Write the structure tokens for this entry.
Amino acid sequence: MSDATPEITFRSDVTVELVKSSASDADVLFAARVSTKGEQSLDDVDADASRSQGLINYLMRDRHGSPFEHTSFTFFVRAPIFMWREHMRHRIASYNEESGRYRELEPVFYVPARERNLVQEGKPGAYVFVPGTEEQSILVEEQVKASCTQAYAAYQAMLDAGVAREVARIVLPVTIYSSAYVTMNARALMNFLSLRTKREGSHFPSFPQREIEMVAEKYEAEFERLMPLTYAAFQANGRVAP
């Protein structure tokens, strides 16, 4: 039951926080060297940078991917639900998401920023997105806000009448924000980045929806910071996951 209708918030961003990690280039090195050195593989993880870069680049180039799996990134992400439906198609991560069955969902909704491209040109498989007109931008903003405001009022009305949260939530649009923990290893993360970012030099071009690319860009910044040699090899080899 709600005492008062909370104020509705509209946002045009996503938030990504790295809450825990066990990820370094050294993790890749000892995992790779166990094949030839056994238990002594831990002894030379601090080998000179040129040797380390060479081994990591070899693993990346020839797609020996398993050494990159001995790492872990855990992110706390807040983004609109329609982004989550795309994200969870990647069955290479662990997820725990907030539940609309057990808590009252906050009235925070996504509305595209004015600089977000709005118009699709071309046909499936051969299309681009281009900026909309000023009139289209205003229309999108007005209609999203009106729809979300009406939907949340209906949600509140059902909660106030004693309807269960799991039933009341069915009127909420996919633009409402949800939060989740996402945990993946470096190999899985590179797979995600290869598909959910558009970058020059990628061996396989990708055309992600902008909202999931916003999340991917924040993941990528942490990946580059924690595993610079692996990240450099990823870039140099066409952003193909090993």
The chain has a mean pLDDT of 92. The two ends are 51 Å apart (CA to CA). The chain has one domain: 9-236. Residues 9-236 form a domain with the Gyrase A; domain 2 fold (CATH 3.30.1360.170).
